[in-house]
Design a protein that fits this description.
heterodimer, A: about 300 residues, mainly alpha, about 0% strand, B: mainly alpha, 10 helices, about 75% helix, elongated
Chain lengths: ~300, ~280
């Protein structure tokens, strides 16, 4: 199927281009990583040893190719701070980040398509106007502020859900784990929904003013039933924007994991950035980039099935 | 645009513009006030007066180190607004000039600039800022520069499109027949007509920068102490949320007021200018 093949080609091209960008930004801009790590009064021997150990002494193209071929084989290098294998750290933290990202994007697509339809259908009702204004404001409010407000309401005032943290047993304690990611998922989904609602609404409005809708109404269908036949029409652009927004969504996960003190990829990256653990940041970003393009590929393929006109 | 259409635009009913302008004026007022006066020294620590409730001497109370919250809010306004203004300045300066150059130059130059800008548009400003902080260490400057460049990329794309439209319009053709050179036409006609769209884009760059500055400061990767920053205030008080929720909610409130204000101002400006062009 040529459509899927084309999407695959775009995705792999995107991964390669982004990996070059990440590599260049983190290897060229910081200057000498060994000095950053060991301080300016390190002995020349220690500096040389560190450079050799991490391969900083070789040419940039050689370093890049070496890094990428090792990564493909599953070796993401070792942390500059702890010396641990980066791969183990990343794998251990995936099972927090992946559920958050998947659940919140799923929720935001469904909820925003629904709100968008309702807001378009009953656009003069106060509730529809409120939804539109709220989404306009929601786009502006930073994600971490949404998170803190939700903690204040649901953890501090109502005492319903934990304000942060993750059970030590992880998913071994499924109920506790679900409770800990509930607020983070809602936070991320709320931020995402605010963006998506306006697309869903304008798409639904387009349909309502179309001939197809008028015909459906004139043969006796209710407005709801007529709109139900156009579910794909509303969902398709929402999915399209979601695909484009995936990198923003993962940046949002970085913020949300820090707000709720969750042991995920994002909070790990924040700590590594603060520690200037550049090889680790570089490899984590590579994994995130691959994740973005894999998810985008899936969303795009699903979307092509939903709306075959996109393929041409 | 004649002076009459401009006047109609200025009196058009745009509630978002009014609300946005008021919010921005409040925060701007705080930032200016902070230059000359704050109730207390925003850095002064008072270990005896920690977590004080709001009172006459401390209208918003004191924080976990006994610092006056209102003084920190006032001083933080400056950091926030400065980040917004500088980043939108950078975005406009290089975005508008590259966009106009792309529109006015030959095919290959145009394609190159557009292609590079499009790649940058795909990267969220916040992610780019995270990478650059990793490379260069945390500072307000790094955040402002990165957001300026990231937001500038979308300014390039929009400006190129608008400038190309203007360059194709009849009055530019007339100017060419009258002997106007390309640089002259760009400076006298194109830039003037780009102004409305550039003003709107400036507000969007500013709001991206304000969100990025507060988010990265919240994560401990932005503005470094002792410079006051609302994002860092929020982060440092979050652990007391159970007992002293107001300490966290004040900076959260002001961050929201600023970003929502700038966004509404931009939306309102767009509505006004669209209205003015339709008339």
């Amino acid at each position: 199927m040529s459509g899927v093949a084309r999407r695959l080609l775009i995705a792999s091209g995107g991964v390669v281009a982004s990996s070059v960008l990440v590599f260049l930004l983190l290897r060229v801009l910081p200057g000498d990583i060994a000095t950053t790590r060991l301080g300016i009064d390190a002995t020349p021997e220690a500096l040389a040893a560190l450079r050799e150990e991490y391969g900083f002494d070789r040419s940039l193209p050689a370093q890049y190719i070496d890094w990428l071929t090792r990564a493909v084989r599953g070796d993401l290098g070792r942390s500059l701070v702890t010396g641990d294998a980066i791969r183990n750290d990343i794998v251990a933290r995936m099972d927090v980040t992946i559920p958050i990202v998947l659940l919140s994007s799923f929720a935001s697509v469904i909820v925003s398509a629904w709100i968008g339809q309702r807001a378009a259908l009953h656009r003069r009702r106060p509730s529809a106007i409120a939804a539109t204004v709220l989404s306009q404001i929601g786009v502006a409010v930073p994600t971490f502020v949404i998170g803190v407000v939700l903690i204040t309401v649901f953890s501090v005032q109502l005492n319903l859900l934990p304000a942060g943290g993750f059970p030590i047993d992880g998913w071994g304690a499924p109920l506790d784990a679900m409770r800990s990611i509930a607020l983070p998922v809602v936070t991320l989904a709320a931020a995402q929904t605010a963006i998506l609602v306006r697309f869903a609404r304008s798409q639904a409005l387009d349909f309502i003013s179309s001939d197809a809708f008028r015909t459906a109404r004139s043969v006796g269908r209710t407005a709801d039933a007529a709109l139900a036949t156009a579910k794909r029409l509303v969902l398709s652009p929402v999915l399209g924007v979601t695909a484009l927004q995936l990198s923003t969504l993962l940046t949002g996960a970085v913020v949300v994991e820090s707000v709720f003190a969750l042991p995920g990829l994002g909070s790990m990256m924040v700590r590594d950035i603060a520690n200037r653990d550049l090889p680790k940041v570089q490899s984590t970003l590579l994994v995130v980039v691959v994740l973005v393009f894999v998810l985008r590929f899936i969303v795009d393929v699903v979307n092509d099935r939903l709306d075959p006109r996109r393929m041409t | 645009m004649s002076s009459r259409t401009l006047r109609t635009a200025a009196t058009a009913r745009t509630p978002s513009f009014t609300a946005g302008a008021m919010l921005v004026a409040i925060v701007g007022g705080l930032a200016v006030l902070g230059l000359i006066w704050t109730p207390h020294d925003s850095l002064a620590i008072d270990s005896a007066g920690r977590f004080a409730s709001p009172s006459g001497s401390h209208p918003l109370g004191t924080d976990q180190l006994g610092r006056d919250v209102l003084s920190n809010i006032i001083d933080g306004a400056r950091t926030t607004l400065l980040a917004g203004i500088l980043a939108s300045g950078i975005a406009l300066t290089f975005g508008a000039s590259l966009g106009v150059v792309a529109a006015a130059s030959r095919r290959w130059m145009d394609d190159t600039i557009t292609a590079v800008a499009t790649v940058f548009v795909a990267f969220p400003a916040l992610l780019l800022a995270l990478v650059l902080v990793a490379a260069r260490g945390p500072s307000t400057g790094v955040v402002v520069m990165t957001v300026g460049i990231a937001a500038g990329a979308s300014v390039v794309v929009v400006t190129r499109r608008d400038a190309a439209d203007i360059l194709r319009s009849p009055f530019v053709l007339a100017a060419r027949f009258a002997g106007g050179t390309t640089p002259r036409i760009v400076f006298t006609h194109v830039l003037r007509n780009l102004m409305p769209s550039l003003v709107v884009q400036a507000t969007s760059a500013a709001s991206i920068a304000i969100v990025a500055e507060s988010t990265l400061s919240y994560l401990g990767l932005g503005t470094t102490p002792p410079t006051p920053s609302w994002g860092r205030m929020l982060a440092s008080t979050q652990q007391y949320l159970l007992v002293h929720p107001l300490l966290t909610l004040w900076p959260a409130l002001f961050i929201c007021l600023t970003v929502v204000g700038v966004t509404l101002l931009g939306d309102g400006l767009r509505e006004r200018l669209d209205g003015a062009l339709l008339r």
